[in-house]
RNA sequence: UGUCCCAUGGUGUAACGGUAGCACUACGGAAUUUGGCUCCGUCUGUGGGGGUUCGAAUCCUCCUGGGACAGCCA
C-alpha cells in the first residue's frame, strides 16, 4: 500500500531511513504496536497503528501486535479480541500477536540481576510515603529508609513477594537511581507491585506485576525492536527506558515520540468515552458518532479514507487540533470515485404528472457512477406519480432558488423536464401534492430546442419506491476543542442534533440490493452506508457518513 | 520557582544557510443532467529581541507562549 506522500518525509520516517542507511540495528526495521487491552481503540490509536505498522511495511520490516498487559485489574480478553479485529479492519497485518505477560519470567530474572547489582531494592514504605518521599518537580525527593537494604535481604524479600507472602501494597521493587534527579521518572521508579489479581492470561500464576516502565523497554528488547514509536507523553520516560536497557546491557531499541492526534468536535479520552456509553449518551461503543474504530467503521468511513487522512495530517512534535472536515474530505474523495449513485427522497412530496397516461410506464437508464463509466447503468421506472424532495419546491422562491416552483420548469435526473402548474395543500396549509406537466420531447433529460433548466432534481417512482430508514449524524459536540475543557464538563457541549432518524424516506428499488456495510452516494445528499447491525435483507438502514459539499445550503444560510 | 519537549497562513504539513511551497478550509469565477465532482483564481504565515553570515524559517542566545512529568496507570 502506498501511504507515502511524494513530497517530504516526516521526521519519524526520516530517522528510520537514516538508521537503515547507516546500518544501525543491522539495517533492519522491527516495530511493535503496544495497546493495553483495557478498552476499545479510537482514531487516536489509528495514528500509532499507521506509524508502527506502516513504517515496518514501508521499510521491509515487521511489526508485532503486542498487548501491554501489565495491569490485570483493568484488562480482559474481550478487549484483546476487539483490538485485533479493529487493527485488522484498518488493513494491517501483524507479524505475530504477543503479550508483555509472555515475558514475565524473563522480566523477573532481569529484576534479580538488577537487585544483585545493587540497582534495585525492595521498598516497604506505604503508597502515601513513597509519594511524599518522591518530592515535587521543584524539590528533590528523599531516600527511603529501605534503600540501603542488603542485596541478600532484597533477594529474599522479592522472592517472598512473588511467593505471595505479602498483601497488596506492602512492598514494591524499585530501581535504585537517584531520588534527587530532576526528571521525576528517575527517582527510584517502581518496577513491581503486589497485586493479588487474576490475570486474563497468566491466571493466578503471578501476584506481582511489572509496571509499564519496567516491562515496556525490556519487551521491546526481547523482540529485537529497532524503533519503539510512542506518543509524546512518554518523552520524559525515555531516559528511564534507556537506563534499564543500559544496566542490563541488552538489545537497545530507539524510542521515538510523535504527536498524538486531536480532532475538532471530538473527545477521545477513554474515561469520557466510557462515560458516554454508560450514561446512554450514545448507543454503545460502536455508535456511529463515536471516534472509536468500531464507531467510525459503523458510521461508514473506509479504512483507506482513514489512512489517507493520517497521511495528510502527517507527523511532527507539535500539539495539534486537526479539522475533522479533513476526514470527511478524504472519505468523499474516495467514495466519489467508487460509490454507486442512488436516488432517495428523504422527505417526500407527491408529484402528479397530469399529462402522463395513467397506468403508463417507461424505463430510463441511469449511470451508476459518472466518475466510473465501467460501473455501467441501471434501469429506472418512470410513471405518472413520483416523489420529490419537499425542500425542492418553494411557493415563494428567493432569487437564486433553482428548483421547482409554480410555473417553473426543472429536470428530473435521468428522466425529463417537468413544469409545476398547481399546488395542492391540506387544511393546515401543508403542501400535499404538486400537479405538473412534462415535456415528452425532453425524455432523457434534454430537449431538441436546447433550452436549459437551472435545476435538476432527484426523484423516485411512487409505484415501486421502497421505504427506508435513514439516520443522519452530526458532530457529537458543539464545541471545536473538546480536549482543553478547563473546568468545564463535556456534557455541557452535547449536540442535541447529533443523531436524526428519518422514517419517511422513499428510495429507488435498487437500494434493496445494498449489502450491510456497502456504501453509496445518495444523489444530492451525501455518502451513506447500509448499517452493519440494523439492516435487514432487502431493507437497509442507511447511515449518513458525511454530506456532499453544499454551496446552496451555505448561500441560503441553512445547516 | 526543576527537567524535558514544542512554536511556519484559519487548520495540518514542507523548505542542503539561498524565490516561504503543498493540502484542507474560506471566498470568487468557469463548466455542469448531482447547487456534487472537475477547472481557474483570491485572501491569510515564519511568536519577539539580539547575534553569526553576502544572505537566517533554518545556526547561536535571551525572552514570550504552550505542553508533559509529582500512579504501586499505560
Offer a quick outline of the entry.
By secondary structure, this protein is of the alpha/beta class.
Find the structural class using helix and strand composition: alpha/beta
Could you please say which CATH topology of the largest domain applies here?
Answer: Rossmann fold
Strand order of the largest sheet: 10-23-24-25-21-22-11
Which residues sit in consecutive blocks of at least 5 with pLDDT less than 50? Answer: 1-7
Q: What is the helical fraction, as a range of percent?
A: 25-40%
Main sheet specs: 7 strands, mixed
Which second-level CATH architecture of the largest domain applies? 3-Layer(aba) Sandwich
Per CATH, the class of the largest domain reads Alpha Beta
Total DSSP E strands: 25
Layout: helices, strands, pairs:
Layout: H1 11-22, E1 30-33, H2 43-58, E2 62-67, H3 77-89, E3 97-99, H4 104-116, E4 120-123, H5 127-133, H6 151-163, E5 172-175, E6 190-194, E7 208-210, H7 212-222, E8 227-231, H8 238-248, E9 254-258, H9 270-278, H10 293-299, H11 303-313, H12 325-338, E10 340-342, E11 344-345, E12 348-353, E13 361-367, E14 377-383, E15 385-389, E16 409-412, E17 417-425, E18 431-438, E19 456-457, E20 459-461, E21 466-473, E22 499-507, E23 519-522, E24 526-530, E25 541-547, H13 551-555
Parallel strand pairs: 1-2, 2-3, 8-9, 10-23, 12-18, 16-19, 21-25
Antiparallel strand pairs: 4-5, 5-6, 6-7, 11-22, 12-15, 13-14, 15-20, 16-17, 17-18, 21-22, 23-24, 24-25
The chain binds one RNA strand of 74 nucleotides through α5, β6, α7, α12 and β19.
